Each structure stands twice: as structure tokens, then as C-alpha cells.
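Input for the complex:
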Amino acid sequence: MNVHELAAHCRTRHESADDAAWLESIQMLEREPTNPDRFYRVAERCWQLGDVDLWQRVAQVALGLPHVTHRQRFQRGGTKLALGDWSGWLDRESRIFHPEHSSCPSEGWYIRWTKRPWDGKENIHEKTILLAPDGSHGDCLQMMRYISVVAPMAGHVILGVDPELITFAQHNFGSVVTTVPCDVRHSVPLTPRGVELSIQCHRYAWLMSLPALLGGPPPFVPLCAPQPAARRAFDHRPQVGFDWTEQSDWLAPLLDRDDMQWHRLQLGDKGDESARFETFADIANYIVSLDCVVSADTAIAHLAGTLGVRTLLILPVGADPRWGLEDTTPWYPSMRLIRQRTPGNWAGVIDELAIQLDAKAGTPEHQVQSVPRQ
Amino acid sequence: MTDLTDYLESYQSALGDGPHADDIRHCIVSSLRNPDDPMPLYRLALLAQMRDRWDLWEGAVLLASHLEHDSPQSVFHRACHRTRLGDWSAYRTLGATMHMINVDVRRLLWVAHEYDRTTDLSDKTLLIVQDGGFGDTLNFLCFIRPLATRAARVILSVPGELVEFVTHNFGDCAQVVPFDANAVYENVYHVTEYVWGWWSAAGLFEGVPLFEPLRAPHPIPRSTFDTRSRQVGICWAASDLPGNPPSPRSINDLALLEPLFSLQRIEWHSLQVGASASHAERCPQLRRPDPPLITFEDTANLIAGLDAVVSVDTAVCHLAGRLGIPTFTLLHYVADDRWGLGGTTAWYPTMRLIREHRRDDWPSAIGELAHHLQAAGDRSS
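Predicted:
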């Protein structure tokens, strides 16, 4: 199939989505058929529409083209990750050239300018390495798994974490790393002057670079909550935590069910009346006493996953590529991925979620299994 | 000065109470706590340079030179020092490490490749960007023509104020556009290769390319002025645009220039723009251009009709040098790296560098300059 046939196919496939941006992206694809950027733009749109077949066809063409710029490599990385190819993490290293990456000096985070990055191979037995956060809370929680690999290799490890994560990180890794507070969202060290003079380290590594530097995830060892809440505080019904930041109304039919008790997990004031969560350590204490956590792709899902609690992760169409296309993930053995198949369609998600919840509720007729993908 | 503690003590007693006191204290503490890190020393060197203290600047650079340089920033500072000593290859280092600090370069790096002088550009479009000061841009123009011959098409992005002057001189070999970081990022120029800034451009060459004088768009004919006396332009203060800190580059007291104005058979023209231009009113010997100078073309047109230009280290000296006019540049004690250490410069064959030999000693430098001008006058008569 040549480019023009592919373009025509794209046009007919999504006639309903005839917005100007979609048509323009197809036109640009025809005009520049050797630029992978053009293909990734169309593929991205298919991904957002939940059209995985077409996404795969367009992305396969893009993967075969020469990639020269960092933006192209970054997009290739996402595509590879979605296809389950670990080398996508290597391509994702291009993100540090993204003008909005947290190593940008305008943010006041000069680590890239003042220290040499660790390449994953250099002997750092006698050196101090800073693991610098460059992502959301969820990303940090996910990458903390590598600390067990880095700590024995380095003379000393400094872990930069957001204040809301620091108690949790200290409880789990306090014996092997020194934690320093950083604002994760802007990756700004919370010290009076820039990192160049305040954090004394020889090498640094971005947390999100660890999969590229160190390869596939190390064996899963569940992390611990600092002070687990007592299970007896709840009644005999299955206890399910949920975190739903947007469009929570579609979840209402499930929340009405009486055969299980629901607990809202959210930082700050919005939490359940019975519990207020100041930090992730508080949430972790609460989660370990629950039977199951239902969550969108947020830090709560990662937290439940790292604690080894059964987690049902709800992914809308256009999900982060790191979750791949399967309904399980190598990152968290206790996690089940429940995907939305088409935009706006939550009924299928509700059904699948209900089946999964019933399975956990202990009704022996239901085996733990996923609904086959269409 | 070889001992770190001695050096830091003398630094503290010399500059510890003035401006940047907190910064200085912080650097001294860092340096004592981490004596293997060259960065606090380079920071101290920079602060000393801002105060025109050569001794303290040199002490820090020497102490730092014995330490391990393994961060881009320390390598960058070492390279700055090397360009001052005339090591041309250091420009390559400066260009490479600059990518780590400049947000706009990072935007471009995301969508294009830095030209590394091995890529075949014969069917490609090369984007050459200069986003720095006006003087830097004029300095950097020597690389344009040699670079332009290598690419099929060249887009030259310079600060908006210089677009007209640059188009007049390079319109035949490049499309000149005003610098706009967003356009660069959105890749509206459809380029895959770029060169950013004069450090990177210099790194693509082995030395200063062959000098080729530029032309003013509409030069004022020399015959407009009195032919019996020499016509000399003068610029005594660096740009006072907001954001430029008060700089030791400028001569703030016009009375210091009196030895120049008292020279025989020289007519002086003010090339000063900005707020300092009004100081000329107090100086009857100084002709103020009418109409006043507004654009760079105005200044270039006037300079082209003069016999010589005297300027401190600001865009005017670069402009006069680029136009091939005899130029005397008055350099303050710890001058910019690019001027090296000598009395002449490879950048401009018609330029002579007159240096302050002590801190705050403009009178002796101006006396030396007066001597040069006098001698040149005697020769020509």
C-alpha cells in the first residue's frame, strides 16, 4: 500500500471525524511522505480515536522511515512502547531535548548544565548519584522500583522527590538513599539556590531514564506502607478504593452498589470524610487495608501497584503508550488494565469492571478473566 | 596565589562587602566545602570580572584549572578562558556546551540537527541563527559568506534591528529574517540543519575567515565634511537598554575624553545612541549628527564617511570594524574573551585595541589613544 492509498484509506475510515486538523494532517502526510513526523501525527489521531488497527498500519510505515530529529525519535519511542518493545525507552531519552522538559534552565533546574549524566555503565562505586525526578508523582512511584538496582552500584544515592512523596520514599528506601525535596511538577529543588551549589553529587540520572539505562524492570518487590490502617476499621463487605479525577459520573452505577464499600482516595481536602490524606504515605496506609483499588491512570494506580494491592486500572482511548495493548503489565503483577474501546463509550468499561469486581468479591462462579478484545 | 584558602580570604576581604555579597559568601562556602568543584571558583571569577578585578579573576581561573572538569558548565568556563588565550578550538567546545543552557537552542534541537561541517548541504536548507547582542551579531557576520557557499539555500536569522543592514550586504546569498524563537520551534522554515550563534559558527572554522568589508547602504560622502581636518566618530558608552547592567565597559565621565578633544585638526562626531547620547550636549567640540542616529543603517552611513572611529567595547566598534574603517577600541581592564590579550585582533584588520592597564584607569588609556591619533595625524600630514 503506497502513501496515497493509505491516505485515502484514512480519509474513508474516519469520515465522521472530518475536522480540519485531521484532513490537514493527512494532506501533510501526502506532501511529505518521507518525514516520520507526518505519519506520527496521523497515527496519534487514530490512537486518540481508539482505532488501533489503523494506528498500527500508519505507525508501521513511520517506523520504517529514517529518524533524524529528537522529536521523531521521541514519537518512535512512544510507538514502540505501545507495541511492547522495550527499546522504546531508549528513544524516549530524546525527551530531554524537549523544550518543555524539566531540565530546561528557565525552570531553574540546572542539573543538565552543571553535572554529568550517568550512562548506566560507568563505575559509580565511589561516587554520589542524584536520581532526579522528571515526571508526575505516578512516574516517580513507577521508577522507584529501580532504586534497588542503583543503590548497590553507587557509593551514595540522593533521591529527589516531591514533599508529598517524601515520607513514603523515606520509609521504603531511607536505609539506602538520602531523599531531598523537589517540586516534581517543575523539578525545582526546594533549596535557596540552584542545584549546582546545593546538591553535591558527581553524576545524575533522570528517574524516567532508568528503564533506558538499566533495561527491563527488576523483579517486583512490593513496597510497604509506613503505618498500615487496621482492616477491622471497616465492615465485612469488600472494601474498594477509587480515584477518579474527571467524569466520575459514569462510575455512579457502580458506586450505588451495596455489596461493597467504596472509599474515595485523593490527596487534600477532597478525600473521604473518614480520612484526609496529606501525603502519599497516608494514602498508602489506607490502601493496604483495602481489597481492591479502581483507578484512572494517576499516581494512585501506581501507588496501589507498587504496594502489590489488586488494582483495576481504567484506561480511556489514547492512553499512555507505556501501558501497551495488553490487559496486564510487566510493571505491576497485581494490576489489571481495563480499556475503553471507543471514545465516550463507558458502558463496556462498566461491564468489564463489574465482572472484575465480582470476581474479587469471591463469587466462585466468576473466574478472574478479562473480556476478550474485539 | 596558589592556596585556595588564601585566595578565598583575600577575595572575601576585597569584594565581600560590596554588591553580590550573598552570592560571594555562598560561593566561598561551597568552594571550601567542596574543594574539588571548579564551579564556585568560576562563579567567583565571573563576579570579579564584573568588578574589573583582573587579579581575583586570574586567581580563580588558575585554581580551577587544576581541578577535574566533568560538567558542561565547568568545561564551558574553561573554554572561555582558552579563547582569551587564543585557542581557536575552544569555540567548538563553547558551541557544544551552549546547547545545554539556551532554551531557544533546545527548541530547535528538538526539530532539527546541528550542522557539524561534515554533512553534505548541497541540496539542503541551512538555518543560521544569531540571537545575541548587536555587537555579537556584527562580529559573527564574517562567517556567513563562507557558510552560505556550502548550502543550497540559507536562512539567516538575526535580531530585528539588524535585518535591513544585513539584507543589504547578504541579500544575494541568504534570506534574512528577524530572530523569532517560536518560528524556529514550529519549524516554519522547514530546515533540518542549523548553526546557532557565533560560538558554534566559529567552531566550524579553523580561524577567522578572510576579511571582507561590508558596505553601508547610503554612505555619507567624505566631501560633506571639512577635508582639511580628520573626521573621527566616537562612542563612549555601552548600550543602556533595560536589562544591561551598568558595565565597566563605558566611560561615564566625558571630561575624561578631554585629551582627545584638544587634539589639533580633528573634528569629532558623536556616534552615541541611547540615553548617554544627550551627554554630548555638554561637549561643544562634539558634533551631534543631524538628523539623529536611529537605525544601524544611519550609523553605518555616517561611519562610512569618517576617517576613523573611536569606541568602547560595544556594537559600534564591531560595525566600524566590519565596514573596514580604522577603529580604535577602548577596552576596560578585564575585557571580553574575544579580544584576547594583544593590541590587535584577528577579527578586524583595521582595528587597534587600546587597553586599560589598571582598574579604573581610563586616563592612561585615553592618553595612549591620543598619542596614536596624534602620530597618525603627523604621518598623514
